[in-house]
Amino acid sequence: MTLNRAGISGTQDKVWGPSTIHGNPKRGTGILNSELYTGRLVRNRLRLLATLR
Questions:
Q1: 20 to 30 A Cα–Cα from 10, which one of 20, 23, 33, 42?
Q2: What is the DSSP string of 1-53?
Q3: pLDDT reading at 53 higher than 60
Q4: Which residue range(s) make up the domain with 31?
Q5: How far apart are the first and last CA of the chain?
């Protein structure tokens, strides 16, 4: 709420929400759970499945 009151825009020029900061610890989402924010670089953490046509 402090960031919103200060006029600091969040991601994609939207307001800051709780999930943007805290996120989901199991998935590593949110600023406080981000490997880059904590100084760790993890490769291939998320896999996306491509659909076959």
A1: 42
A2: -HHHHTT---GGG----HHHHT--TTTT-SGGG-HHHHT---SS-S--PPPP-
A3: no
A4: 2-38
A5: 45
Would residue 43 count as lying in a domain?
no
Which DSSP state fits 32? G
Instruction: Report whether 30 contacts 22 (CB < 8 A).
Output: yes
Q: Which of 30, 46, 26 is nearest to 38 (CA)?
A: 30
Task: Determine the pLDDT at residue 52.
Answer: 52
Distance CA(31)–CA(35), nearest Å, equals 9
Per residue in 11-48, pLDDT (tens digit) is: 778 888 888 888 888 887 888 877 777 777 777 766 55
Burial of 23 (0-12, 13-18, 19+ CB in 10 A): middle
